[in-house]
UniProtKB/TrEMBL annotation:
UniProt KW keywords: DNA-binding, Transcription, Transcription regulation
InterPro entries: GAF-like_dom_sf, HTH_MetabolicPath_Reg, Tscrpt_reg_IclR_C, Tscrpt_reg_IclR_N, WH-like_DNA-bd_sf, WH_DNA-bd_sf
Any one GO MF annotation of this record: DNA binding
Native source species: Variovorax ginsengisoli
SMART domains, sorted: HTH_ICLR (SM00346)
Origin organism lineage: Bacteria, Pseudomonadati, Pseudomonadota, Betaproteobacteria, Burkholderiales
TM spans (from-to): none
Domain IclR-ED: 68-250
This protein's name: DNA-binding IclR family transcriptional regulator
All copies of domain HTH iclR-type, residue ranges: 6-67
This protein's record includes keyword DNA-binding: yes
Gene3D superfamilies: 3.30.450.40, Winged helix-like DNA-binding domain superfamily/Winged helix DNA-binding domain (1.10.10.10)
Pfam families assigned to the protein according to its UniProt record, in alphabetical order: HTH_IclR, IclR_C
Length: 250
């Protein structure tokens, strides 16, 4: 494959990134404008993606993401080692606590929930599998970021400083580094109303043997129930589950 064809393929796949929670359908004109390509090129991209099942035609000459993505997600779930090894542990954690248990991971610069096991009284979560979460809010993202090396964390600080400050994190690098070092040393993070005002969560990292993290495992509960829960015991259950899962994946 030539360098030109690789570049063209990358541009065509950029079409898929034009869809999100706010834009679920696009016309070919939309796509041409968003990618700054000619209309004939946009028509070619759309035709090839429709043939591959990655787009499908909807009403009024609009296109939406296609059914092939559902099939691929099925294979991703079956191949994901965290889910393969972790779902039984997550179910045990739900049985022990009665609360929802969520697995999350960092993919590129996005934190995604990959699986949820519901407890006796399921919580109303605005985020679910596949919907990107804010990087600087909530328990799972923070325990994942806490595993970054100092250079990785500094690069993130420089690239997204305005965003992290808006989310209440330290505006200066030394304080920012100490903030995440404290989470790393604790081995868990308890968030209260950070991501969704009515919810609290305890998360612990799923560690890789060579350093870094597979993601995080969290227990989510209503804030009202937090006052009657033995928080120390809950933290122990979550960190123990994360450690067991880390050992299975090592």
């Amino acid at each position: 494959m030539t360098e030109k064809s690789v570049s063209s393929l990358g541009r065509m796949l950029d079409v898929l990134d034009l869809f999100d929670d706010t834009v679920l359908a696009r016309t070919t004109d939309d796509i041409a404008g968003a990618l700054d390509v000619s209309l004939p090129t946009a028509y070619r991209y759309v035709r090839l993606l429709v043939e591959a099942g990655l787009l499908q035609r909807a009403e009024n000459s609009h296109y939406t993401l296609g059914p092939r993505i559902i099939v691929l997600d099925h294979y991703i779930r079956k191949a994901d080692p965290v889910l393969r090894e972790g779902i039984p542990i997550m179910r045990e954690l739900v049985q022990a606590t009665g609360f929802d248990c969520v697995a999350s991971g960092l993919f590129g610069d996005q934190v995604l929930d990959t699986h949820r096991e519901t407890g006796g009284v399921p919580t109303m979560l605005a985020y679910g599998r596949g919907r990107p979460r804010p990087l600087f809010q909530g328990a799972a993202p923070k325990v994942i970021l806490a595993q970054f090396t100092p250079p990785q964390l500094h690069k993130l600080f420089d690239a997204r400083r305005d965003e992290l400050v808006r989310n209440g994190l330290p505006a200066e690098w030394p304080a920012f580094r100490r903030y995440f070092a404290a989470i790393r040393n604790a081995g868990f993070y308890l968030s209260v109303g950070e991501l969704e005002p009515q919810l609290a969560a305890v998360a612990a990292p799923i560690l890789k043997g060579e350093g870094g993290t597979w993601g995080a495992i969290s227990v989510v509960l209503d804030i009202q129930r937090l006052s009657i829960v033995d928080t120390h015991k809950l933290v122990g259950l979550v960190t123990a589950a994360a450690q067991r899962l880390s050992a299975r994946l090592a």
